[in-house]
Amino acid sequence: MANTYFISDHHFGHSSIIDFEARPFADADEMTATMIAKWNAVVNKEDKVFHLGDFSFLNKERTKAIVSELNGYKILVLGNHDRGRSRTWWLEVGFDEVSEYPIIYKNFFFLSHEPMYMNKQMPYVNVHGHIHSQKYEGRHYFNVSVEHWDYTPVSFEQIRDSVVVSEEQS
């Protein structure tokens, strides 16, 4: 059975992010190789991955090479650093689907790049990236930025189970 995963903010090719976020890599090439290996260690070819933005700072050829190495059916929700390139550009580099807007998943999870405003009375959960190693408090937010998950995609079950635990604690 295929699994579903979520991840964001790889920033492939962005060497400055190593210092900005204290990433444990010597350079952008090591970061790229490690993040590809961690992705493929959990994601199989038949799995689905929602990438919630800020995928690559590299040119089309190099971005396409990275996307082709990554397992799974890949859906990109555009992040602030992805928006300088068209939806078509991202499809041409190998994403199977590209959305300019947040996606509602399983009628309960809002998938977006940047955290969305979530009223405390709303029962929904916003799965997001953008804020890297920061974290919003509360049961309405689930940050899938690579810094929180050892650069490895997070399974839907991990997110669902975390939400259930939060509900039980409130």
Write the layout of secondary structure elements.
Elements: E1 4-7, H1 16-20, H2 28-42, E2 48-51, H3 60-69, E3 73-77, H4 87-92, E4 97-99, E5 103-105, E6 109-111, E7 125-128, E8 141-143, E9 154-155, H5 156-169
Parallel strand pairs: 1-2, 2-3, 3-4, 6-7, 7-8
Antiparallel strand pairs: 1-9, 5-6
Detailed description of the structure:
It comes from Paenibacillus phytorum. The chain is α/β, with parallel strands linked by helices and 170 residues long. The chain has helices at 16-20, 28-42, 60-69, 87-92, 156-169; strands spanning 4-7, 48-51, 73-77, 97-99, 103-105, 109-111, 125-128, 141-143, 154-155. The longest helix is centred in the first third of the chain and has 15 residues, at 28-42. The protein is globular, with a radius of gyration of 15 Å. It starts with a strand and ends with a helix.
